[in-house]
Amino acid sequence: MTRPLPHAGSGAPHRFLVVVVGAGPAGLTVGNILRAASVDCLVLEKETREFIEQRPRAGVIEEWAARGLEKRGLARNLLDRAELHTACEFRFDGERYRFPYGELTGSHHFVYPQPLLVTDLVREYADVRGGHIRFGVRDVRIHDLDTDRPWVSYTCPETGERQVVHCDFVAGCDGARGVSRASLPPERVRIARHDYGIGWLALLAEAPPSADCVLFGCHARGFAGQMPRSPEVTRYYLQCPPGDDPENWPHERVWSELRERLGAAGVPPPAEGRLIEKRVLDMHDYVVEPMVHGRLFLAGDAAHLVAPIAAKGMNLALHDAFLLGDALVARLTTGDDSGLDGYAQACLRRVWDYQEFSQWLSEVYHGTAAGDPFRAGTTLARLRRLFTSPAAAAAFAEQYLGTAARY
């Protein structure tokens, strides 16, 4: 049960120190950090609670991010229930190559699907810490960002009336198509974008994984990936043309391509099962600068998107949220502006580091299928180097785990 707004229905404007727009991992983490410091805030979300707790998303969480959640009292279920991954496997040239990154670094990944994390964060914010949150709001607008008295308005889903909320700061955590990014003055915004020119068919199968770790198939027919989700459900990816129709991929074609692209000497083929999800993801990245305008601070996909090639997106959103939540607490409880002043610069250092790694990894995944013998040859050289050069292996492991980025 969510906490009602004070004086609800009075028609009078409400006031909170911070309004958080968007209840994804970034927005809910910011909200929880504020509530833990007794900073009153309001989270606005256009979808229902049920929708955000069930929306299918990947769930690779780097160890530093999980420890950041733990530090803030937000990782109890994650640490109890998440799978720990310490290795991955590349398959190319008909062979399998296991990459034990845990042995090289002493670190690992947590695999915890995003809907479970969002469920945990909503419960902690709304039900445990008593935070204000409104679901199903419509037509959110942000006003007077260039002043020290910004305000936010929205349409109440129950009454259809406009509600006004005054605040000191707005945290824009509502994604690429949200109102936060759209509220930036167009003449002041630079969006750096990169399109890979490929798509991934994202699949969820009612079938056990064929290996105990993530698989990367680098094949002339296109990339294929496997990510274990549970003993009964497996996530698969197949490279496809951008904008492809999932209906072009019937059951038999999907499993035929997975067998071919993930095939290697001495390994069993993937276990077939019913496909319960099929959607095409077009691979692209973007970075929005500035991430700050007046009293509006962007976080997560509102500010940047990294293609799922390297499984970095949720980790970047959490990094933003840790920095922004802590900076807002410092400003509102002690008057310390240093965190807010350095927020964008601190975020963007990690963002660009992860973008560069995503580009590098894309060539490893997709170069053999480019139809260019030169690219195919250099891609195979990169792959072989990972398993013959300790220095190359260590560098890859650090970037793959996010441990190379010290910010």
From TrEMBL:
Domain FAD-binding span(s) in chain numbering:
18-357
InterPro entries, per this entry? Answer: FAD-bd (IPR002938), FAD/NAD-bd_sf (IPR036188), RIFMO-like (IPR050641)
> Which keywords fit this entry according to its UniProt record?
FAD, Flavoprotein
Which Gene3D superfamilies does this chain map to? D-Amino Acid Oxidase, subunit A, domain 2, FAD/NAD(P)-binding domain
Xref: NCBIfam families: PRK08243.1 (NF006091)
In Swiss-Prot or TrEMBL terms, this protein is called: 4-hydroxybenzoate 3-monooxygenase
What is the source species?
A: Streptomyces violaceochromogenes
